[in-house]
Amino acid sequence: MNFNALSYTQLDSTNAEAIRLYRLKKITSATLITTREQTEGRGYATNLWESEPGKNLTFSYACFPHFIKPAGQFIITQIISLSLTEVVSEIIKSKKTTIKWPNDIYVNDKKIAGILIQNFVRGDSIDFSVIGTGLNVNQKKFTSDAPNPTSLSLETGKTFINEIILNKIMGRFNFYLDNLTSHSMRKTLKDSYLKNLYRLNQPAKFRDKNGIFTAVITGTDAYGQLILQNRKKEKLVYGFKEIEFL
User: Fold this and answer.
1) 240 and 191 housed in the same domain
2) Per-residue confidence at 44, pLDDT binned at 50, 70, 90?
3) Is 129 helix (H, G, I), strand (E, B) or coil?
4) What are the E-state strand segments in 108-210?
5) Cβ atoms 146, 161 nearer than 8 A
6) Are 170 and 33 in contact (CB under 8 A)?
7) Are strands 110-122 and 125-135 parallel, antiparallel or unpaired?
8) Where in the sequence is the domain holding 94, given as residue range(s)?
9) Dmax over Cα atoms in the chain, in whole Å?
10) Are residues 148 and 228 in the same domain?
11) For the chain, how many structural domains are there in total?
12) Same domain, yes or no, for 189 and 232?
């Protein structure tokens, strides 16, 4: 897929810029927005994303996936999560890279990337989607209260060229997106996402509105909800923010 590219020295947020341009009708086709410094980068809700200027990748890919129904929007999460996981895995071969549901990228038990997807629905399809991504590349010191950050440089002892890594990520993303109308590709995405889930089939502690419990992650459903099985062999299903990993 061909796409336009917009590069900035500083932005409050690449997602916010994409949405501003969309509302002003200044984005009409797929567009990649990057910035050297992001002053108000964030994750879901009020979570902030720390990124030292020039050290990391902070970008948003804005596109118009009209062929995706609102009920199937989790497939966008699968595409970007797998694209990042595959590229990070190629670079850090000695450690396990996984997807912490729904879309944080982990190296062992440390977070290396976060994703924020914002979809705009019109009628029975997704009119506009903004896929915001922060990948820690060359940053070595983190000052926020995030509990477990890491970077490609910290994990390998090497320095990387951001643009080369970005091109690899976008290559994977567009490969998946371009072939998404194929039933076999959708099955591949589903299977690969499941295979790469953090703590899959491992007993672990979680917290929900009723308290702390032990369960095993067994998968996700078509809507992207997390499926677990507790010690009583009961099936538990959670939407985002309804459960916390401990």
Assistant:
1) no
2) low
3) strand
4) 110-122, 125-135, 203-208
5) no
6) no
7) antiparallel
8) 4-195
9) 54
10) no
11) 2
12) no
Give kind and range of the element (H or E) at residue 191. Answer: helix 183-195
Instruction: Classify residue 131 as exposed, middle or buried by CB count within 10 Å of its CB (0-12, 13-18, 19+).
Output: buried
Measure the CA–CA gap between 76 and 5, rounded to whole angstroms: 20
Strand partners, 75: none
Q: Are residues 71 and 154 in the same domain?
A: yes
Tokens 């902070």 correspond to what residue?
Answer: 58
CA distance between the termini of the chain: 40
* Model pLDDT for residues 102-142, shown as the tens digit of each residue: 999 999 999 999 999 999 999 999 999 999 999 999 999 99
pLDDT in tens, 2-31: 789 999 999 999 999 999 999 999 999 999
The letter for the amino acid at 191 is D
Residue with tokens 């950050």: 149
**Integer Cα distance of 140 and 52 in angstroms:** 9
